[in-house]
Design a protein that fits this description.
The chain is of the alpha+beta class and 225 residues long. It folds into 2 domains: 2-14 and 144-224, Sporulation related repeat (Alpha-Beta Plaits), CATH 3.30.70; 31-137, RlpA-like domain (Barwin-like endoglucanases), CATH 2.40.40. The chain is 22% helix and 31% strand. The chain is built from 5 helices and 10 strands. The strands form 2 sheets. Strands 1-5-2-4-3-6 form a 6-stranded mixed beta barrel. A 4-stranded antiparallel β-sheet has the order 8-9-7-10. It is globular, with a radius of gyration of 16 Å.
């Protein structure tokens, strides 16, 4: 079973990259900073990427139309409206961005910047860089969220359904969520936790069987994730 699951998850990683929208992310050991970052001054270090076309002009996860020339970004768990300073650790250039979207959805990266934000910290050419995130301000009202663990992303719905059914009996509620894009991607989410810490604990359990499992915030409706 574990061998079969590892093969399925390895195949899932093949579809998560995108030439124009490089996606990834990781839950570090400290869930407070990495999973929800609810306090001004909290920090997170990881790899940043950026996205432009074909997402420019489409709806972001918060309902706004994504404009790649505005200083915005996608994060897996931060509340919409959070202002984050992004410091490029390779050149000490920084930019403040507003969280409006969800992502990255592949293990390894922590934030997806708009093209304008990437330009500010000289990220357009290299495409990725190690950065430090620091929460500058929080929205006045942070909605009570639910959290889940993403364990795979597939181009083919059938592959996502297969993995979802395989894991549901072992770890609880599992579902397949569509991430619109070019091509669209079917994400497999496990669990329905009230806190990021509980979701991080679930991710730790899942990693006994799968190398790639990270916490995501579940905004309503899920189809917009």
């Amino acid at each position: 079973m574990k061998r079969h699951l590892s093969i399925a998850l390895a195949l899932a990683l093949l579809v998560t990259g995108c030439a124009k929208k490089k996606r990834t992310a990781q839950v570090p050991g400290a869930p407070r900073a990495a999973a929800v970052m609810p306090h001004v001054g909290d920090e997170e270090v990881g790899i940043a990427s950026w996205y432009g076309y074909p997402y420019h002009g489409r709806r972001a996860a918060n309902g706004e139309v994504y404009d790649m020339e505005k200083l915005t970004a996608a994060h897996r768990t931060m509340a919409f409206g959070t202002i984050v300073q992004v410091l490029n650790l390779t050149n000490d250039r920084s930019v403040d961005v507003r969280i409006t979207d969800r992502g990255p959805f592949v293990d390894g990266r922590v934030i997806d910047l708009s093209r304008a934000a990437a330009r500010e910290i000289q990220l357009l050419g290299p495409g990725t860089a190690k950065v430090r995130l620091r929460v500058i301000t929080l929205p006045q009202q942070i909605p009570v969220g639910a959290f889940a663990v993403q364990v795979g992303a597939f181009k083919e719905r059938a592959n996502a359904d297969r993995l979802s059914k395989e894991l549901e009996g072992r770890y609880g509620r599992a579902r397949v969520v569509l991430r619109d894009g070019n091509p669209p991607v079917w994400r497999v989410l496990i669990g329905d936790e009230k806190t990021a810490e509980a979701a991080a604990a679930l991710a730790g359990r899942i990693k006994n069987d799968a190398a790639h499992a990270f916490v995501v915030r579940v905004d309503a409706p899920e189809s917009n994730l």
